[in-house]
UniProtKB/TrEMBL annotation:
Biased composition (Polar residues): 1-14
Keywords: Transferase
One Pfam family hit: GST_N
Domain of life (superkingdom): Bacteria
Native organism: Psychrobacter arcticus (strain DSM 17307 / VKM B-2377 / 273-4)
Protein name: Glutathione S-transferase family
Gene Ontology MF terms in the entry: transferase activity
Keyword Transferase: yes
PROSITE patterns in the record: GST_CTER, GST_NTER
CDD domains to which the protein is assigned, alphabetical: GST_C_YghU_like (cd10292), GST_N_Ure2p_like (cd03048)
UniProt-listed SUPFAM superfamilies: GST C-terminal domain-like (SSF47616), Thioredoxin-like (SSF52833)
Length: 280
């Protein structure tokens, strides 16, 4: 059972879940105005389409920054076919529930990408979920992913999937209850803090013997580093939730070294501060 502080008597008020859950009141917190138990379109909104083949619809949260990094790294290599237009999906205003965005991502989460250069039957290809977008782009251009079957590719994809499975405990778990919940609650904060610190320890132990997630050479830098850095690198550098002291991120020296190295890459610097054009 979850518990809440009762400000009137200083006691812990127990909560007993009903037999059937119903949304009969707002749940509070930063995103309460857009939370809903149903999916789908809430309003009509046509998405803009620019001149480039790749159209990115996103927000500069950690999930969005992942794709920004790869697109900017491809630009750093001078790959003209990877040119893109980037548009802002303001999740606080519900842009993700517009008809145009839901059409390319039925889950209404950023980021989403549309590729107009590789159409099937005349239809552009829409990709959602950050991991899928990174794999699609890396394989499309043959960069930042080991293309041959073997150990290097397996390790890249394993760490990619590690991030996809682990980060919800960081963002939706720790981040929500530490920074966004309507009031601090000891049990969920302790629960998710413990898990996040375990994850940081996983990374620190791995990076003790690896310069990058997949090896020691510059050529080993790949989408696993990008996708993990967007969450855990920024967390280690004190960029998320104002939680660096609380989590004692300086206790992870190998993670710190890796995070700082990637943060200095020109493409990563541009990606973090990417200008996204508002949709109108």
């Amino acid at each position: 059972m979850s518990q809440n502080n009762n400000p009137t008597n200083g006691q812990i008020e127990s909560y007993t879940p009903p037999k059937v859950w119903t949304k009969d009141k707002e749940n509070g917190g930063k995103f309460s105005s857009i939370n809903s138990p149903t999916a789908g379109v809430r309003h009509d909104k046509v998405l803009p389409v620019g001149d480039a083949s790749l159209q990115l619809y996103s927000l500069n949260t950690p999930n969005g920054v992942k794709v920004n990094i790869l697109l900017e790294e491809l630009a750093e290599l001078g790959i003209k076919e990877a040119a893109y237009n980037a548009y802002l999906i303001d999740i606080s205003k519900g842009d993700q529930f517009g008809s145009g965005f839901v059409a390319i991502n039925p889950n209404s989460k950023i980021p989403a990408l549309v590729d107009h250069s590789n159409s099937e039957a005349g239809e552009p290809i829409a990709i959602f979920e950050s991991g899928a977008i990174l794999m699609y782009l890396a394989e499309k251009f043959g960069k930042f992913i080991p293309m041959q079957q073997g150990k290097a590719r397996v390790e890249c994809l394993s760490w990619l999937m590690w991030q996809m499975g682990s980060a919800p405990f960081l963002g939706g778990g720790f981040g929500h209850f530490y920074a966004y919940a309507p009031e601090p609650m000891e049990y969920p904060i302790n629960r998710y803090t413990m898990e996040v610190k375990r994850q940081l320890d996983v990374l620190d132990r791995h990076l003790k013997d690896h310069a990058y997630m997949g090896g020691d050479e510059e050529s080993d830098y790949n989408i696993a580093d990008m996708i993990i850095w967007a969450w855990y690198g920024q967390l280690a550098l004190g960029k998320l939730y104002e939680a660096a002291e609380f989590l004692q991120v300086d206790e992870y020296p190998h993670l710190q070294r890796w995070a700082k190295t990637i943060a200095e890459r020109p493409a990563v610097k541009r990606a973090v501060d990417l200008v996204l054009e508002p949709i109108t």
